[in-house]
Design brief:
CATH topology of the largest domain: Quinone Oxidoreductase, Chain A, domain 1
Structural class: alpha/beta
CATH superfamily of the largest domain: Medium-chain alcohol dehydrogenases, catalytic domain
CATH class of the largest domain: Alpha Beta
Helix content: 10-25%
Number of strands: 15
Number of helices: 11
Oligomer: single chain
């Protein structure tokens, strides 16, 4: 199939210059590559923080820039195969596919030991010019991309949640929830909702969700929270301690990316408890580090990306075991990207905002 020479794409030239380009070159298809026609691409909180110039992405006086402009943002995307290289096996034109955000090198010690999501070069879709993301009409999947087939009959609004909910699953898996645990999830945005609907399947003793927006707390209840609390309206640390005889929760999952949520969690979790950090922060966070060791002897765990999670999430989104209803709230064309990015901040109560092609 002969593809057009140019396409419409949102391009980040620098942290101060994001621009819609109508004649960006369509990616070339190498012998080991797959080209998809993009169906839909979500806007992630990471995309917003990158757009706003967060040091985590663009570097500072101590750290080099992680992003490599000019690049096309977007890692929550899927589409249908329109071209394949001669070496590609196991796929057909027209098939609907998506991929992990990471594009592993296959050669570093993490890749060779099966821990591909921590690949040392750490190429990802949507932040580096060699692996452009889904805010464009066409995307190239290189040889080492971790691909997954998406059911033809899965609605777009559900399929959009595969990548974020896969990240949510990995985070909850890191928490090692049992039926005896009181679990607190801080943050009920899209990723928090993915954690809630999956954690509900772990059947914890009690699942508590925290968020500053009441409409998100209502959605958290729909998705399986036993209790939904607003830290802006009540002392949630005192409430959780009251519910646990003064001890605190067994597990605290941080999914807001706000420094106050970290301090709150360290105060709320019990001694010998487990703290799981998921979020990307806009800047450094300062805490009393002694709480972790001498104060409570906590297990502090990180959660990064979505290793080995896509198959489970695709299956259980398809059969309804994982809730997805009402999460995708606003769909835009790429021409409306500025309004879409503004909407994706959640200022109007939106969960997931996306582009449809």
């Amino acid at each position: 199939m002969e593809l057009p020479k140019t396409m419409k794409a949102l391009v980040a030239f620098s942290k101060d210059e994001y621009k819609l380009v109508n004649d960006f070159p369509v990616p070339e298809c190498g012998d080991d590559d797959i080209i998809i026609k993009t169906e839909v691409c979500g806007i992630c909180a990471g995309d917003l923080k990158c757009k706003h110039g967060a040091e985590r992405f663009w570097g500072d006086e101590k750290n080099p820039s992680w992003v490599k402009p000019p690049f096309i943002p977007g890692h929550e995307f899927l589409g249908r195969i329109v071209k394949m290289g001669k070496n590609v096996k196991g796929y057909e034109l027209g098939e609907r596919i998506t991929a992990d955000q990471i594009v592993p090198c296959g050669e570093c010690k993490f890749c060779k030991s099966g821990r591909y999501w921590m690949c040392e070069p750490h190429a990802t879709f949507g932040f580096q010019k060699d692996n452009n993301g889904g805010m464009a009409e066409y995307v190239r999947y290189p040889k080492t991309a971790v691909l997954h087939k998406v059911p033809d009959d899965m609605p777009l609004e559900t399929a959009l949640l595969i990548e974020p909910f896969a990240c949510s699953k990995h985070c909850v898996d890191r928490a090692q929830i049992t039926g005896d645990d009181m679990v607190v999830i801080s943050g009920a945005g899209t990723l928090g909702l993915g954690m809630i609907t999956y954690a509900r399947r772990m059947n914890p003793e009690k699942l508590i969700v925290l968020d500053m927006k009441d409409e998100r707390l209502q959605k958290a209840k729909e998705f399986g929270a036993d209790l939904a609390l607003n830290p802006g309206k009540e002392d949630v640390v005192a409430k959780v301690k009251e519910l646990t005889g003064g001890y605190g929760c067994d597990i605290y999952i941080e999914a807001t990316g706000h420094p106050s949520s970290v301090e709150q969690g360290l105060a709320m979790v019990r001694k010998l408890g487990r703290f799981v950090e998921f979020s990307v922060f806009g800047g450094p966070t300062t805490v009393d580090w002694s709480i972790i060791g001498d104060g409570k002897e906590l297990d502090v765990l990180g959660a990064h990306l979505s290793p080995y999670c896509f198959p489970y999430v695709i299956e259980h989104l398809a059969n309804g075991d994982l809730r997805a209803d009402g999460v995708v709230s606003s769909i835009y064309s790429l021409d409306e990207w500025e309004e879409a990015f503004d909407k994706a901040t959640g200022k109007d109560g939106d969960f997931k905002v996306a582009f449809k092609f």
